[in-house]
Amino acid sequence: MSRKQIIYDCLINLCNSTTLEEIEEGFLGFETRIISKKTGFIRNNVSKELNQLTREGKVIKVVGRPTYYFVYQKMNELLGKILDAENLEVESLRSIIATTNEEKGIDFINEDTDTDIFHSIIGFESSLKVPILQAKAAISYPPNGLNMLLIGPTGSGKSMFAEIIYKYALDNNLVEPEANFVIFNCAEYANNPQLLLSQLFGHKKGAYTGATSDSMGLVEKANGGIFFLDEVHRLPPQAQEMLFLLIDKNIYRRLGETDIDRTAKVLLIAATTEDINSVLLTTFLRRFPMVITMPSLEERLLNERYELIYEFFLNQSKIINANIRVNKSVMKALLLYDCKGNVGQLKNDIQIICARGFLDYKTKSKNQIELDASTLPNHVYNGLLKMQEKRKEILNFFNINNRDYYDFSSENKKQRFYNDKDDFSEELYKKIGEVFEIYTKRGYSNNKIKKLLQISIDKYLQQLLSKMDINNYEISPEKEKLFKIVDPKIYNTVGKTILEFGSEISNKNEIEKLTIALSLHINEIIENKDEKNHIFPMRLQEISVSYPKEYFIARKIRMNIDQELNIYISEYEVGIITMLISSVTSIQKSKKIGVMIIGHGSKTASSMASVCNEMLMTTHCKAIDMSLDMKIDDTLEKASILAKNINEGKGILLLVDMGSLVSFGELVEKKTGIKTLTIDKVSTPLVLKAVSKALLPGMTLEQLALEWNDEETKSKIMDNKKDNFNQKTIEGKYCIITFCLTQDGTSQKLAQLLRENIPSIAYNNIEIITMSLEKVKKISQEEYGNIIALIGSVNLKIESIPYISTDEILVKDGLDKINNMIAELGFDVPNNYHFANLSMRLIEESLSFLNPEKTYEILEITLQEILNKLKIDNTDGLYIRFLLHGSYMLERVIKKEPLPYKDIATYIQQHSDLYNVIRQSFKKVEEIFSIKIPNTEIGYLVEMIDTL
C-alpha cells in the first residue's frame, strides 16, 4: 500500500466518529501532527500527501496555522449533499454548513411531498439513513445526476439498493417514464474482453468471428435511464477506459465501428465487494463522485435484523399460501447466528428452513407449516450457543413467559421492497410439491419421500453456502472438539434444560460436565436408534424411586429433545439418562469400572486420554504410551501396576490399538486376578463412548460388553470372555447359511446384517456361510455340521433344515425367528431383544458406486412394467429381491464382470416368452446407463420371476 493511501486511510478512520454537531460547535478537522504520529511518517511527507489528496478532490483543507484536514466524502455524508469539489480549501468546516445552500450542493426533495420508495427499506431511518441520503442527493443532482459506486460485502443489498434508486428516480420524475434499468454483471465476461465490449457497446457485422449482423449493446438500451454495473471490480482496465468517453462526453462506438460516434445519456451505478483503490483505476474512480457504503448485517441494528427476519417469513408464507408458525428458538437462532453472507444469506437460510418445514406440511397433511429447532441448518443453530452473551439484547424482542410461537399469515397485506418478488422460492416449493406427488403415486411412504426431499434441500443449502463462500463457520475453541462428535443442536437443548435446574446442581463445573456427558449419550442414541439394548441392571421403576430428582430432570430433557428436535427417546433411555445425571453430579457415589488406554507411540494413548478427560471433565481415563523401544514385558508390568491402582472392585476396561496389546487383557487378568475387558482398534470417539459407559453407576464389564454397538468388537469381546459369562458349551459346529442366485451381493449382505443385528450369533461363535442357489441344493449336515437355518429367496424344502425367506428377514419377523432358534438349541441369548425392520437399510447400503436413488427409481419402474405385462401382483419379497439383484447386476455389467450362466441359450429357448418380456422391459435401463445387459444376466432375472 502506498504512503498516500496509508495517510488517507488514517484520516478516514479519524473522521469516521465526527458528528455534524461537533462541526457546528467549531471542530476544524485533524492536524498533520496527529496523522504523523499515527502513521509514523514525518510531518513534511504527511503534509505533501494531504495536499495532493486535496487536489484530487478527496480531502478538505482548512487553511490556517496549523492547517487542518477532513475527508470530503465524510462531509458529504454528514450534510446529505454533494459539495462542489472544485475548491476544497476553506477557512473552517463550519463555514461549509453556513453557506451550503448558496453553493452547488442540493438539498433532498422535501420528505413530506416526494414519493419515497426508500421508506419501504428496513433501516431507512437508522443504518441505511446515510446511504439513502447520499443516493437521493446523487440521483437528484442537476442536470442528470451523479454516477454512484456502491461498496459493501456480499449479500449486503447493493443490487436491491440500485434498483430502488431507479424506482425513486421514476417516482419523482428524475428520469423519463420509459427509462430502462439495465443490469450487467461484469464477472460473466471478465475472461473475454472482446465479448464484454460487444455486450456493453454492441458490435458491427463482421467485427469478430461469429458477428453475423449488427447488434445493439446494453449502453444503447440504457439510454436515458440507469445502467447498473455489478461486480465492477471484474471489469478489465481496457473496458474501464472505454467507458471514459461515454461518461465524459456521452459518446460511444460499437465494436468494429471507426467512423460513427453514437450518443447515449446514461447514469451509471457500479457495485463491488472489493477494495476500490486496489481493483479500479484511479481515473475510473474519479468519474464516480458518490461512493456509498452498504453496511454488513453485523453492522446493522438488532431490531433491523428482527424486522428482516419477520419480513422474510411473511414473504415465504405468501409464496406457499399457507400460515407459518415459528418457534421462539428459531427466531433467537436467526437473530444471533454468524450470518457471513449478510441479508442475502439470511433470506436464503430462512427459505431453507421454510422448505424443511414444508416437507412435514406436505407429508403429514398439516394445516400450517411449523418450524422448530429441528428445521435449522447447523450453522444457524449455532446462534443459540450465543444466548448467554447476548441475553440482555434478546430480551428486548421476546416475551419470555407468554409467547412461544410467532405466526405469519399468508393474508397479511404488508409489503416491503425486499419481498416484492422471489421467483426462486416459488419454483422451489412448486418443485417439492411436484416431486411429492410423483413419489406418492409410486407408493413411497411419507417418511421415505421426506428423506429423499430432505437430501435435495440440503444439497441446495450447500450450493448456496458454496456460492457465497461461507462454508467455514467459526466455533468457539472449547466447543470445536466436542462438535466434531456431537450435534450442536443436542448440546444446546440439553444445556438449556440443565440450566433450568441450576439450584439442584450448584457447581458450575458439574453443570458443564453433565451437559457434555448427556450430549454424548443422546447423540449415540440417535446414531444407533435401530439398536435395542434393553439390558440394564436396574429396572426403570427402581431408578425412578431411588433417584427422584435425577429422574425428573431426565424426563424434562426427554420432553425438550422431543419438542425442539422432534427426536423420540424411549422410556428405557430415560432410565439411563437418570443414572448418568446421578453419576456426573455425584449425588450418589458408587464404584466404577477402571479405564486404561495402551497404545504404540510416544503420545498415542495419552493424547486420547487427555482429550477424553477434558471433554468429559474427569480424570478417570488413564493411559500408557508404549514407545517403539519399550519391551513388551515392561509394558505388561506397568499395565498390571496401573490396573491395581485404578481398580475399584468392578474390573478394568482395557482399550488398545493393535498387535500384541490385544492379548494384554488376558495377561493382566492372570497376573493380577482383576477381571478385564479388552477393546482394540481404539480411537478418540470410541474412548469417549467407552468411558461414558464405564462411569455409569451399576455398570459391569459384562453389561458393558452387551451394550457395545460395534459388532466386530463385540464379537471379539464375547469370544474372549465365554468363561466369565458362563456360556454353555454346545457340542458340534453350528452355522447359518445365506444364499441367492449367484452367491455375490445379496447373500453376503444378508450375512452382514445377521452379524450386525443378532448378538447371539457372535456371542455363541455361530458361523454364517454364503452360497449360490445351485450349491445349496447339494448341501449336507455332515459337511457343514449343524445347520440352524437356510436363508434365501427360494424355498428348496430340504428335509430337517428350517427355511426363512429373505423378505421375512427384511420386512417381517425373521430376525426374531433366528434368535428363538438359537435359544431353543440351548445357547445364551440377550433377554427382551427387539429387532428393527431392515428392508430399506439393506437397499440403501447395497450399491458401491451407482447413484442409489436413480438406480432404484428406474428398477422400480422396470419391475412394475414386467409385472403389468405378466399380470402378476407385486410382493415385498419380490420387490426387494429384484431391486437388490438388479442393482448388483448393473454394477457388474458396468464393470464388465457379468455372471456366467450354464447353457443359457437352451434356458432362454425354454422360457422365451418370459425372456422377451424382461429383455424388452430393460431396454430403457440399458439406454439410461449406456450398457448392454448380456443374456447370462437376463437369465437370472428370468429364473427369479419364473419361481413365483
UniProtKB/TrEMBL annotation:
Listed Pfam families: EIIA-man, PRD, Sigma54_activat
Residue ranges constituting the Sigma-54 factor interaction domain according to the UniProt record: 121-355
Gene Ontology BP terms: phosphoenolpyruvate-dependent sugar phosphotransferase system; regulation of DNA-templated transcription
SUPFAM superfamilies in alphabetical order: P-loop containing nucleoside triphosphate hydrolases, PTS system fructose IIA component-like, PTS-regulatory domain, PRD
InterPro entries: AAA+_ATPase (IPR003593), P-loop_NTPase (IPR027417), PRD (IPR011608), PRD_sf (IPR036634), PTS_EIIA_man-typ (IPR004701), PTS_EIIA_man-typ_sf (IPR036662), Sigma_54_int (IPR002078), Sigma_54_int_dom_ATP-bd_2 (IPR025943)
GO molecular function, one term: ATP binding
Highest taxon listed in the record's lineage: Bacteria
GO CC field: membrane
The PTS EIIA type-4 domain, residue ranges: 592-725
Every PRD domain range: 485-591, 850-948
Keywords from the UniProt entry: ATP-binding, Nucleotide-binding, Transferase
Name of the molecule in the record: Sigma 54-interacting transcriptional regulator
